[in-house]
Amino acid sequence: AQGTAQSAEFEFTFHHFLGPKSPAQTQMIEPWIQRIEEASDGRVSIEIYPAMSLGGTPPELIRQARDGVVDLIWVVNGYTPGLFPRTEVFELPFIHTNDPKATNLAMRDMFEESLAEEYEGVEVMFLHVHAGQAIQMVDQEVRKPEDLAGKKMRIPTRTGAWVIEALGANPVGMPVPELPQALSKKVVDGAFIPWEIIPALKLQDLTDYQIEGADKTRFGTTTFQVSMNKDRWDGLPEDIQQIFRDNSGEEWLAELGEIWRDIDDGGIKIATDAGNHHIVLTEEETEAFREKLEPVVQRWVDDVSGKGIEGEAMVEAARAAIEKHAGQ
Amino acid sequence: MNPAASALPRPIAFAEKVIELWALAGGILLCGIVLLTAYSLFMDIVFGAPFAGDFEIVEMGVAVAVFTFLPYCQLTGANVSADLFTSNASPRTVTFLVFLGAVIALLFSTFLIWRMYYGMVDSRQYNEITTVNGIPVWFAYVPILISLALLALASAITMIRSAKGVPHTGGPSLGGE
Amino acid sequence: MDTNLLIGLVGLAGLIGLIVIRIPIAYAMIVVGIVGIWVLSGERILLSQLKSLAYGQFSLYDLSVVPMFVLMGNIATRAGLSRDLFRAANAWLGWMKGGVAMSAIAACAGFGSVCGSSLATASTMGQVALPELKRYRYKPSLATGTVAAGGVLGILIPPSVVLIIYAVIVEANIVTMFTAAFLPGLIAVAFFIVTIAIYVRLVPNAGPPGARVSREEFVAATLGVLPVLAIFALVIGGIYLGFFNPTPAGAVGAFLVAVYGFARRTVGLRDMRIALLETAKTSGMIYLILLGAELLSIFMARGGVPQTAAMMMAESGLSPYTIMVLLLIALIILGCLMDSLSMILLVMPFFWPVVAELDFGMTEDELKTWFGILALIVVELGLITPPVGMNVFVINALARDVPMIETFKGVVPFFLAEIVRVVLLLAFPSIVLFLPRLLG
Ligand code: NA
Ligand code: NA
């Protein structure tokens, strides 16, 4: 990427919304690019433009890739609710539970048959999830769903808002950068957000309680995509396409699961080192959340059935696929 | 609304009135957003239950309101320029430069109508909605395109005005500094 | 030099050219941005990006507070707050030598606490204070100079539109910026009042003492200012103490000022109409410049200009303080030519990456805050310096019997006070950072 002296045969722009020092860039995007560049023997060069430096707002990233404003993007699917209803199945609570690797691989399994059609105009390099939504509270201990009743919680995504509603809390939407202030002043009581974000927002200073289910079970997750403009992809020779494919396959997705798991573990360590309470719910307590959150899955099924998507079947398939890859 | 209007033909005076009313409509929308936000805050503080998704309505509403303001800004010469370098230029020169500015505004607004029309089509085709309330995003593009059409109209009026040597009517705005 | 960078520099030259020939600054940025993106990246990228760019920028949540504070200021302008403020200040300070001018400064500070704009503060307070200063036979240059300078407090004391825009550009926290501006704002008020005290001692008869008010008037005037203080305490205090975020605060502020105006019958539907149209002009102007700045910064990013500028500065071997001072001087010079908002939007995308590389022994967030306050002050100095000093123009439109040059002369002592303040804040960053650290 940086400082390529001679111009490569295939040059790409890679646009994303986080800063150049974010773990997403340093631990995922940069290694991925480096491998592709190396495998291509310098024929491919990919320049990263972090922090929306090529203009626009994060919800516009998918348009930018579709329209060829940039060649490659990394983005949260949930920034444009309505565009990726099928992939949303993997965001639902207790579909993804605790294993980003398994969910990554499951999404890959189901991609061609069930998801591909909603990625119009782009060639998906890979889809992935983070470790999953945990509960981070300013000063409220949470052990059962009732503890969240009436609390104001920042939503991660559309389906995340449903999770919060199902638990009897109030979903509050706000941009991520506003979250620290909102927490410090108790404009919100907490957020559904993974540990990974803790250092970036200094949540260890702003919250007292980090809560997750038994065995790292989370309450839904967020799906991300790395995609290339379709025309750009179609114009690449097969050997170059193959290089992208080789470096975005099962092996990479499994590794990526580990990467996000590690980033997440690093986050919770910072919180516990700072003296925060890391609450891991017991099996029974987790089960109480599962019962409360089951209707969210049905809500999604009803929501997408209007769009001609067979929700029930997708839920089954997603669960089976994740099950297949679990604990590998 | 402005004394110079009488110097111009009746359709132009009518168009100016429409542009002003359109900006006022946007102002009333802004007041509506202010009230909604204040109401949401009140409900939040008193009952712990803010208006669901108020922030996405603020985002959308403010965007629409600000677009309604643009034609009025053009018409009243509210867009600041650095007048220092031309302070000694002849009135003819200044009028010509104002004309040039209006040409740019006309070209830009026409260009943006063309582009944002496709922005609306895309948004509709790909079913972009807001996160909490599921409002289709393309709704916002409809009043915005009307605003841009009025911006083109306002630019044309400023072109005619400067061609006829009629100055701006509004003067610089006082609020922004 | 690589071609893209060269194109970037040609673009900057073109931008200056367009601004010089009086093309509105927003359109100058838009034209250069569009042409630049086209040349560097081709028409497909340009045409595609403009489908959604304007909507994306105009719907930024962080910015939606701007029209709200603008509306609040415009209603406040019509609600008679300025009269209450001046009356109260005059009851407290008016009897001193130079006291009426000091009252004008204090009232400007009070008005600045509900209004996010310098020009609105200067013009509103000018209408109230200038007749009084004339009545007490203040030296004309001192009278107009005081109000022109006092107007600057509109921006230095939160809420402040320019500060919000700065925060959005460099991704700083708006609340932190507001908190940081508070102490420097108070220092400005103190310095201005001391400046007047010194001036009236050096120049005989420049500022005769006003009349002492009766006890009843003193109480009535003091009580009359309480609603304004209450609104400020609620809105800005509410932000500091965390009852709400800036956008709801702006909404509540606009709402309360309107209620106050309606209740006192100083604001009617007619005033609301004018306030809305003024808000339309100001907000429209601001957002159009924002769009231009976004287009320009896309062009520059594609040309690699900001990165190169930051690298060149870093390799120049100059000390951090030297670079900082050079940047501030550049801002003062630019401030003579442009309005503060356009300037912040135009230069911050280049200046901030340079500053971010400098080591002053503070965190990046603290550096953002400190530099933002310093930049804000010097940028606002442009409002009172020749040849283009918008505050001076506005005040002179109100005081037609005072020659422009007199007003500029009258501003000089305040300008010097501001320079002292900048040096003070440069030498002691903790004055800026103290409150944000305290309130977290
Ligand atoms: Na202010
Ligand atoms: Na100036």
From TrEMBL, chain B:
It holds the Pfam family DctQ. Part of the tripartite ATP-independent periplasmic (TRAP) transport system. GO terms for cellular component: plasma membrane. The chain crosses the membrane at residues 21-42, 62-82, 94-118, 138-160. Signal peptide: none annotated. This is TRAP transporter small permease protein. Keywords: Cell inner membrane, Cell membrane, Membrane, Transmembrane, Transmembrane helix, Transport. The complex comprises the extracytoplasmic solute receptor protein and the two transmembrane proteins. The keyword Lipoprotein does not apply. It is a multi-pass membrane protein.
From TrEMBL, chain C:
One of its GO terms (cellular component) is plasma membrane. It is found in: Cell inner membrane. Residues 13-430 form the TRAP C4-dicarboxylate transport system permease DctM subunit domain. Its main location: membrane. Keywords: Cell inner membrane, Cell membrane, Membrane, Transmembrane, Transmembrane helix, Transport. The chain crosses the membrane at residues 6-39, 60-81, 101-122, 142-169, 175-198, 218-241, 247-263, 284-301, 321-352, 373-399, 411-435. GO terms for molecular function: transmembrane transporter activity. It is a multi-pass membrane protein. Part of the tripartite ATP-independent periplasmic (TRAP) transport system. Belongs to the TRAP transporter large permease family. The complex comprises the extracytoplasmic solute receptor protein and the two transmembrane proteins. This is TRAP transporter large permease protein.
